[in-house]
Amino acid sequence: MNEITLFLKRGIKVFLILVFVFTETSLFGQGGEYNYFYRVYFRDKGANSIDDFSPSDLLSEKAIYRREKSGIEIIDYRDLPVFFGYLNQISSLGFTLHCTSKWLNTALFKTKTPADPDLLLALPFVADVKLVKNPVVKSQYRDKLDFIIEQINAPSFDRPITMVNGYPLHYSGFDGGGILIAVLDAGFFNADKISSLSSLRSRNGIKGTFDFVDNDRFVYDYSTHGTAVLSVLAGQIEGIIHGTAPEADFLLLRTEDVSSEFSSEEDLWAAGAELADSAGADIISSSLGYYNFDNSSLNYKYSDLDGNTTFVTRAADIAASKGILVVNSAGNERDDPWMHIIAPADGDSVVAVGAVDGYEMISLFSSAGPSFDGRIKPDNSTMGVSITVQMSVSSVVTLSGTSFSCPVLSGMTACLMEAVPDATNYEIIEALHSSADRFNMPDSLYGYGIPDMVKTLQKLQDNHLIIPDNASVIAPNPTTGSFDVIFREAPGNLTVEIFSSSGVTIYKNDLGEYAGRKLRITALFNKDPGLYFIRLTTGIGTFVHKIVKLSY
Length: 552
What we know:
This protein is α/β, with parallel strands linked by helices. It has 3 domains: 3-133, no CATH class; 148-463, 3-Layer(aba) Sandwich (Rossmann fold); 472-549, Immunoglobulin-like. It contains 14 helices and 23 strands. Helix 10 (264-279) packs parallel to helix 11 (311-321), helix 12 packs parallel to helix 14 and helix 13 packs across helix 14. The longest helix has 19 residues, at 3-21.
């Protein structure tokens, strides 16, 4: 059992015990319908202090590494849990805890019948109380998770990858391996069955699951929306589906309740993002967003889309401040009265993704920027029209929506992270912007435009590789078995051959179009000590190096 899974089991167990302590119902059941949800804002963290916790109490090793890489504090005040004593006092007043947000120092409580917020406001440690869900007739606006099923004149199944020049990364072996993506969505019905995800399941690439709506671990129900998103990220059916990060690992987190639309789902999104952070997620891929609710008094205004106001945007920006790359759909609202991007796509540290068709034209539905305070939004655009997905065991369909342009980009960024592991989330955002086709003329529809993954990779490598003066170098030399080949320029088509001193070929690998400028070779591990020759055949020439293999 790996470190991520162990940490998740411990963290989710603690979360469930916390919920159980403050409810009279069974651990995994609602025990009756809770109709009223209250977000309680606390003035402080009570008796909790930084000195009371070590980093390993709150974070997995992978999360600690991510923060160290980003040069940020390992734990800070925001990482401290909501104070248990405060939760206990509120519970004693007849409120049932649903979840907390340590980052925003809030708790979501629920009741079956209306409660008096003044009971909570009278408590000295409560700063504010907001009703975020109550029984009302469901609004008639189009559900944000609705998608259009299209089967006619669909582009090539792999057009989403070719559009962003993504195949060179895959051909170079950068397919998301070792990168943890947290998918926040409405459910993953059939994701435990469909054929396109069989490889993901067989290699145990799903590292954890949790349902924040029902507070249990089972996420394979309620909605196929997350299933479709996951198939864009990790699906593999030869000639039909090719995921953008087929070897990445995943956390599947249900934070969206498809039966209604309320601000309480922002609390669930924040709780999901915090679990993703603690478990060590590198990327949050969220095809969700908020602006309109069944209770219209909770609706956001465009002026709230300023990057600092909505609850979910504040949570998303904090996630980014912890070193996570947060990628979010821009929204499907441009052909509706709202028109604008939706939260948390307005976050200044969130990559908001618009949707273009197979001909690189912006879709009619893709939400328009800018943010209310005038920042360029969306950030980038990728294909989100007629995307091939699998949601059911028996069929594959094409769908449209920024829900699918989002995983196109989030998956490709996982490949970038694998290729340049020292790159921070902010460096990746900047490189995505500057490598895109509208960087010099960004607008409110495309943002900075469609990024080129090879150019993005080169920009990141320029920051994190020592570029040699020669066309290629190898190091370390001598070696005990493993060494790197570093190129001054991306080699293009690349073949690597290793010969013994007597001229016998002991290794050959035709890598095709290689996009990286650093290649790790381990072929000498089990070979005898001595002199070997490395021949590199590239698109710009052939180069030969001598290398000495030492004994272990």
